[in-house]
Structure formats: structure tokens, C-alpha cells
Amino acid sequence: MDVELAVADRSETSQTTFRRSWSRSTRSRQVFIITGGLIVAVFLVAAIAPGLLTSHNPNALYVGPPSAGPSAQHLLGTDELGRDFYARVVYGARPSLLMSVIIVAIGAALGTVVGVTAGLFGGWLDEVLMRIVDLFLSLPGFVLALALAAALGRGERSVVIALSVVWWPGYARLFRGMVLGMKHRLHVESARALGAGHFRIARKHMLPFMWGQLNARVTQDLGYALVNVAGLSFVGLGAQPPASEWGSLLQSGLQYVATAWWLTLFPGLAITLWTVGIAMLGDGLSGFIRGEREAGERD
Amino acid sequence: MLRYAFQRLIWAIFLMWLVTLFTFILLHLIPGNPAVILAGLGAKKAQVRALEVQLGLNKPLTVQYFQYLAGLVELHLGRSAVTGDQVTTDLVNYLPATIELVVISFVIYVALAVGLGAWSARREGRVTEIAVRVSAIVGSGMPVFWVGAVLQLVFFARLGWLPQGGQLAITASAPPKITGMILVDSALDGQWSTFLQAVQHLVLPVATIVLAMLAVGLRSTRASVLQELRRPYVRTAEAKGVRGLRLTVVHIMKNALNPVISTLSLQFGYLLGWVALVETVFNWPGIGLYLYNSIQNLDYAPILSITVLISGVFIVVNLITDLVYPLLNPRLRDRQG
Amino acid sequence: MTGTNADCRPVLEVEDLRTAIGGKDSRRLPVNGVSFTVSAGETVAVVGESGSGKTMTALSVMGLLPKGVAQVVGGRVAVSGRVISGLSDREMQSVRGVDIAYMPQDPVSSLNPALTIGLQVTEPILVHRKGTRQQAEKGALDLLGKVGIPDPRRAMHAYPHQLSGGMRQRVLLAMCLIGQPSVLIADEPTTAVDVTTQEQIIDLLASIQTESHLAILLITHDLGVVARIASTVLVMYAGRVVEHGSAEQVFSEPMHPYTRGLLQSVDFDSVTPRTRLFALDGAPPQLGDLPTGCSFSPRCQYAEPVCRKTVPELAATTGTGLSACHVAARGELPPWTSTQDLRSGT
Q1: Looking at chain C, which terminus has fewer C-beta neighbours within 10 angstroms, N or C?
Q2: Can chain B be said to touch chain A, i.e. do they have 3 or more Cβ pairs within 8 angstroms?
Q3: Does A268 lie at the interface with B, CB-CB under 8 angstroms?
């Protein structure tokens, strides 16, 4: 009898596991994934192929009456130079998101190297590296990034470099923690498994757990990175006109708060929506990733 | 305990030193003669020459660093091209407004985050939980300068209830300067109409800061209190007849605040960074606005000095937080020895 | 042996108490029709394995069930004649600590780590406004000394983590007694401490009881403690009382198969006469799937067909106590021979 049951289990393919995971996840998780996913998808399209979302040229001057409110022809109105604002915002996705993604990528890459090294080797190397990490974490990141970006000169490159420098220590800590956790679990698991092989244990238990942690961190960071990038653009560093990065759009729209409210509302809304959307996606996805569920995820 | 305090102090000093090293490196990263940079555009040749000597530009880098450090300590921070004054003078002028804004905002924020967080934790219910979770996601996604802009839009542009910015109306005259903080000075001088006006002007910037940070602090407090509520000592207290406010404040908060304090101090760090953005939105005459103007004009002397200043404040606040921990948690006191 | 000072006034009356987990209509009843009384100067012990419902009974009496998880759904509780079972939380709070006190299980985590001992011990007096701070502090000092804390003055200013487990248990005792309650519910007072301290705590309880005619409801799974101090014993299983009688009777002639099983499982080879109850075959059933009929029947060596059909009620037996067993009710339980009388141990 038991043998039959065992055979039945093994015949499940990976296709059905997805469907099973989906139906097992709660209603709120599903809502989060769908909403978050949709938002992120739209934003990604805006960044990669903005032409798909608008036919207007974001830099074409006076395509409509200047400082006109939202209308049928101009969904988000026009700015003080008559440019279609919706196009400005859509085309602004690329610099905004590109910078954020690169920053998180560099931060994660650097952080991985440092963190994994520290975790694997331990000893004095670990001590030294972690001291350095602590150092960065004990200083006000945004302010230092601001100074660095200013010193490097205006432009996207400076912002990316400056924020990456500030971003990597967080990942170093995270990866070191994961490596240490893995080392510990490896000992525990192999004591139990007795010959199942370290590699298989690592694959079955550690990797899902790592993905879980990474998922939570990266989705959150992609949002935070954008907020910081926009902040630096807001003060004049970062992408320069006519690029319509959202932070700088907001800054130039500020003087028209009383007369052209759409110029300040929509760029900020875009930033918020991205952050919320990706956070929702991450939150929802965490239910799928077994590692996080093992770690005691409760909805 | 004393040894712990000493360790923390050494660490703080070390961090401060690193910051000066950082700004020194930046100074040399910026294209151009450091003396010219610090002297500001439009400086006279003599001033530049003097700075060159002070910075020791013809000497090896390490010596230069020490001279730079000496300059910092003596507050020779250079001249601002924008204002034409010594950076030191500018900082003194701009600082009070920022202190006013930061202190008031942070105090209100802490009171609200802790109060609301604890209250929402005592209230059970799925609705509260979802509301908190959603507001945390949304709250931390809204950039602070956008919150400010939206508030300005609604309460100034649309409703006309509150002023657009500045500390006082353009036509108003400031009270005699004692602390430099208009709110305090007008109160000290008995100029109550000015005081009221100052309050009016404070509302939006303070609200901006509080709203931008509230979601995180609230969630942190709520989570911490919820966790404490599950602990056995709470039942012991209830078994004695302790209830309500006393239970929350005397028994739970002392334990619940520990993790919350580290979140709060982290947020204070963010606040120090964001104050530039908020001051820009509301044209608030503080360090942040000074920084913003300096960046617009690539006026480096103030930028570097403000970096050192804000970092310094951040380091000091963290030090204080580190020292406060053992006070709240008796177990730590003994462990530190 | 104590418990004989009992005068006949019942101070704690519990009648048909029922508590449900997971909603009013749930069929999971960790406390399922429990009744007993405790008189002044009497010690009533409630014994059983973990999960039998002992602590839940105590919490139900105190009104301290975790909200949203469990609630009292039937029965009546009265302290010194006053009914407390229907009271609101607010009203209960004026009863707890002064009329009836609860001494929790784990001394290590039951004290607030951030508050001094002094504050925690004086609290019942201050919260219930039974005295000034000075009076409370003096009372606390006296009590701390009485429960055997060396240097009470220093203890008052100490924090819980600075005291050993045994000291903390005593602090808990002082904290319970300071309000001068008429009933003390002691939940596993000897589990978390070492043997010497166990003896001392029991002696303390006994002497305090003699002095102030305190009614004690003792919850424990340690039969040795029961033998030393209790006059009446209730044996609980799966939420019900299965045997209820005087300590003498329960130990010399247990009238329920479960009780017999417990007594037999006592480890007579252990060094100390204080022993634990375990090692019965099988395990107590989950509340969600109680067997039909007698809950103990699957593990019972005397089980008969009727046992699997009808739930036995507490009924008189050939002894002086009550037993919830069909076989015992018919007088067909074989006579009991034990190899050691626990009560004759020290």
C-alpha cells in the first residue's frame, strides 16, 4: 500500500507543482502578485519600449498649449514648454529605473563577493571586512552619496557610482549571514543525512532559503534605490535635462505647484507606484519560494 | 558599563575621522585647485594664496591631510561663492532653522509612531493588521519630497489654508535673535502673533517629515509590542490585577522599545539626509536649502562642510542611542561590565 | 501533614466549568465539566499529564485565557461566596491579586526583566490601592524575608536576571501573597527548581497555609508534592475530572485505572521520593479527536465494551471518593496493591 503512494508522489511533474503552489497560496498573496506584477510589467515596458505606451515625443516642444491640465489629447497635461507630460513621465522610466537597477546590481555583486568571502573564510578576514561594513552602515548614506555625486560631477554616472558605494555594505551583511547560516545548517543536515552528499543538501535546503532572503531584499531595494536616485536628481545631480528622470521632473514642477499641479503629482506618483508595485510582487512571491515558507512565513 | 561607553566613544571618534578623510578625498577628486575650490568662485587672489598655504598644497598628500584636518577643527571651512561669506558664518545663520524643523518633527514623529503603534497593537483585529501592513508598504514608497509637494498642493494651492513655504511671511519681520529659532525667539519676546505665524509655517514641513516616516516607525512599534504581549510576564502582571495603561506603559513598553529604538535612530539618519529635500520644497532657510543652493551652483566648500556636519550629528546621535540601550535593558548593563 | 486545618467554609467553588478552544461552539473542550471546592486552610491538588487541562482550569478560574483563542463557555466560579465567572475583564482585574492569586509556572520568564523585584512585588498593593508605597515596600521586605530570600533589601533593587531560579520562584510566591488573597493557585511550583528548593517551597506553602488559612489549589504533575501537602486530589484526563477524593484514599486505594496507571509509573528507583508521573503507554488524546465513550479507554487495561460507548460520569465507588469509570462504579475494579506508599516517604 505504501509503495503505491510513494510511486504516485514521484510522478508529479514540475508543471503541477507550480499550479499546486499557486492554489495553496492565500488570496492576499495572489492579489499581491497579480497587482504587483502588472505594475512592474507596465513600468518595465515604459523603460524598455516607451514608444509602445505613447506616440508623443517627450522632447518635442509646444505640441500643445503650455501648462495645460490633463485632457484627452494629453493624458497628463503639458509642461511649461508645451511638452506632452505623459510622454515625459513614460520616457522618464528608463533613466530612473535603469539607474536603480544598476545600483542594486552593483551593490549586490560587490556585496556578495565581500559577504561570501567573509562568511566562508572567517577569522580575521571576516573581522576586518565586517568592521568595514559596519563603518559604512554607521554613516548617513544619502548624505555621503550626495557629496560624492556632487564631487564627481553632474550626470547619471556619478549618481550610480555614488549610490553603489553606499549600497553594497547592506548586501555584504546579508550574504555573510546567509553563508554562515548555510554553514551551520550544513553541519546539522549532514549529521542527519549521513552520506546524502553536501551538494544535494545545499541544493535542496540552502538555495531556496537564499532565494527567499534575496527576493525580499532585492524587491525592497529596487524601490529604495529609485527613491534615492530620484532624491539626488531632485537636488540637481543625476540625469540632466532634457532627460525626464522623475526626480528632476518633480523639482522643475515645484515652482508650478499652484498653477500646474500635474507637474508635481505624477512624477512622484510614478516613483511611489513602482516602489509599491515591486514590494507587492516581492511580498506575494515570497509565498512561492519554499525557503521563505520554511522560515516560518505567516500571512 | 563604563568600558562599553568608552568603546563606543572611540568608535564614534574613529568614524568622525573617517568622514574627514572622505571629504578630503572628495576635495581632491573635484577637478581644479583645492584652494580655488574652497575659496569659492570670485575670490581674490590673496584669499586663494592664503588658502593654498593653509592647505599646504605643495607638500605631500599626508601632510596636506593633516593641515586640512587642522583647518576643519579651527573651522576654516572656506568661502561660499553663492553667499560670499565664510561657510562658517553661513552655517551659523542657517543652522537654527534646521534644528527647529528637525527637533519638532522628530519629537512629534516619535510620539505618534510609538503611541499609535502601541495602541494599534493592543487593539486586536485583522483590519488593523492589514491597514498597518498596507500603509507600511505605501508609506515607505513615497519619496519625502513628493509628500511635501502633495501637501503643498492640497493645503496651499487648493485649499489655501497654509502658506507655501518659508518660516514667516515675506512681509513679516523676524523677532530679535536670541537662539535663531523663530519659534523660540518669538515666544521669548512675547510676540505671539509672530509665534502663531511661525507655527503656521511649520505645519506643512513637519507634517511632511512625520508622514514620510510614520509608516515604518508605527509598524516597528506595533510588531515589537505584539511580540511582547505574548511573553509570560504579561500574564503574571495581569494575574496581579495590572491592566490597561499601566500594563502597556510600565510593563510592556520598557521591553518593547528596545528594538524600536534602533529603528528610530536609523530613521533619524534618514531624516538628516532628507531635510535637504524638505527644505527645498518649502523654501525653509536651513542647512538643507543651503546645501541645495550650493549644489545648484557647484559651490563645493559648503557641500563638503555640510557633509561633515551632518555626518557628525549622525554619529553623535548614534552614540547617544548606543549609550541609552543599557539603560532600558538591565541585562545589558551587567554584561557590559 | 497539612490540609487538615480545613474548616468547612469553601473559599473557592468551581461548578461544572467548561472552556472551549477556537470559538464558542467548538467541541474542543480542554476544561469539560470540572467541579471542586477548596476551603480555607485546605490544599486541593489537581494532577494529570501535560495537556490534561490543569493549567487551562486555573486560567479559566482567573479569567486569564488568551483572548480570541479560548473562552469559558459554561459553569460557575465563586470566591468567598462572590460569583466571578460572569465578570467583565475590568471587574476581574479588581479581584485578581487580592482575592485570588495565581502563581505561574515558569519563574524564569514570568517576571518582567525590565522591572525591579521591588516594583513587581509591591505592585498588587499599589495597583489595588491597598496601602501607601511605604507600606507596600515594608510588606514586600517582610514577605521576601519570609519566603526565604537572603538580604531582602538588596533583592528589592535587583532585577530578575540577577536571581537564581529558586529565588525567582520565591519572589513569585511573595508577589502572590502580598495582596493577602484567600485563594492561591500554584501552577507547578516545583517543576522549575532543584530538589532542595522544592522541599523549601513546599514547607513554605505549608507554613503559610497554617498561619493564614490560605486555600491552595495546587496544580502539579509531581505526585510526591501532592502526597506531602494536599488533602484532596483531583485527577484530570482530557479535560475531565476522572477521580476526586481525599489524598489518603487516592493514594491507598485509587479508584480509576488512569490514577492507578499514574501511581504505577512512579519511578521507585529514583534517588529521591519526589518523582514525576509519566511512562504510561500511549499518549493523551488530541482534544479534537476524542474517542467515543471514555476518553481513557484506548489505554485502559480494564476497558469493556460499555466504556467505548458511554462517557462515564463521576460516581461513588467502594472507596470514599468519586471516580468516572464504569468498572469502578460497579465495584468491579480489582483491589489495589502498591509496592510503596508514597505518603510515607519524606
Answers
A1: C
A2: yes
A3: yes
Nearest chain B CA: its distance from C131 CA (Å): 15
DSSP-assigned states of every residue in B50-88: HHHHHHTTTS-HHHHHHHHHHHHHTT---B-TTT-SBHH
CATH number of the structural domain spanning residue A138: 1.10.3720.10
Please tell me the predicted confidence (pLDDT) of residue A13: 45
State the CB neighbour count (10 A cutoff) for residue C216: 27
Q: Are strands C43-47 and C70-79 parallel, antiparallel or unpaired?
A: unpaired
Question: Among residues C214, C184, C314, which one has the least CA distance to residue C5?
Answer: C214
Average pLDDT value over all residues in chain C: 84
Cα(A221)–Cα(A219) distance, integer angstroms: 5
pLDDT digits (tens, 9 = 90+) for B184-231: 887 877 888 888 888 888 999 999 999 999 888 888 888 888 888 888
Q: Which residue bears the cell 510582487?
A: A281
Tell how strand C70-79 and strand C82-83 pair up: antiparallel
**Grid cell at residue B34:** 583645492
- Asked if residue A32 is part of any domain, the answer here is no
Specify the number of domains making up chain A: 1
How many CB atoms neighbour CB B159 within 10 A?
A: 9
Q: Rounded to an integer, what distance in angstroms lies between the CA atom of residue C15 and that of residue A30?
A: 49
**What digits encode the pLDDT tens for the residues B38-88?**
776 666 777 777 777 777 777 777 777 887 787 777 777 777 767 777 788
- Residue A147: DSSP 8-state: H
**ipTM of the complex, rounded to two decimals:** 0.85
Backbone angles phi, psi at A232, to 5 degrees: -70, -35
Residues of B in contact with C95 (CB under 8 A): 241
- List residues in chain C touching B: CB distance below 8 A: 62, 64, 67-68, 89-90, 93-98, 101-102, 104-106, 109-115, 123-124, 127-128, 159, 161-162, 172, 175, 179
Closest CA to A92 of A133, A127, A54, A124: A54
B79: closest CA among B115, B34, B41, B117? Answer: B41
User: Contacts of residue B26 in chain A, CB cutoff 8 Å?
Assistant: 147-148, 151
Q: Do C102 and B239 touch (CB under 8 A)?
A: yes
Residue A150 lies in a domain: yes
In a domain, A49, yes or no: no
In chain C, DSSP finds a helix count (H) and a strand count (E) of 11, 12
Q: Report residues of chain A scoring pLDDT below 50.
A: 1-15, 291-299
Rounded distance between C-alpha atoms, residue C331 and residue C333, angstroms: 6
- When mean pLDDT is compared over C41-50, C190-199, C262-271, the highest value belongs to C41-50
Residues of the domain holding A222? 92-298
The pLDDT tens digits for C80-101 are: 888 888 888 888 888 898 899 9
Q: Could you count the other beta carbons within 10 Å of the beta carbon of residue A198?
A: 12
Domain for residue A173, yes or no?
A: yes
CB contact under 8 A, B239 and C104: yes
Predicted local distance difference test score (pLDDT) of residue A40:
92
Distance from CA of B32 to the nearest CA of C (A): 58
The C-alpha atoms of residue A286 and residue A290 are separated, in whole angstroms, by 8
Q: Are B307 and B23 in contact (CB under 8 A)?
A: yes
Sheet of strand C31-39, all strands in order from the earlier edge strand to the far edge: C31-39, C10-21, C70-79, C82-83
Does the pLDDT of residue C224 top 50, yes or no? Answer: yes
Respond yes or no on whether the N-terminal peptide bond of residue A242 is cis (omega within 30° of 0): yes
**Coil vs helix vs strand at B48:** helix
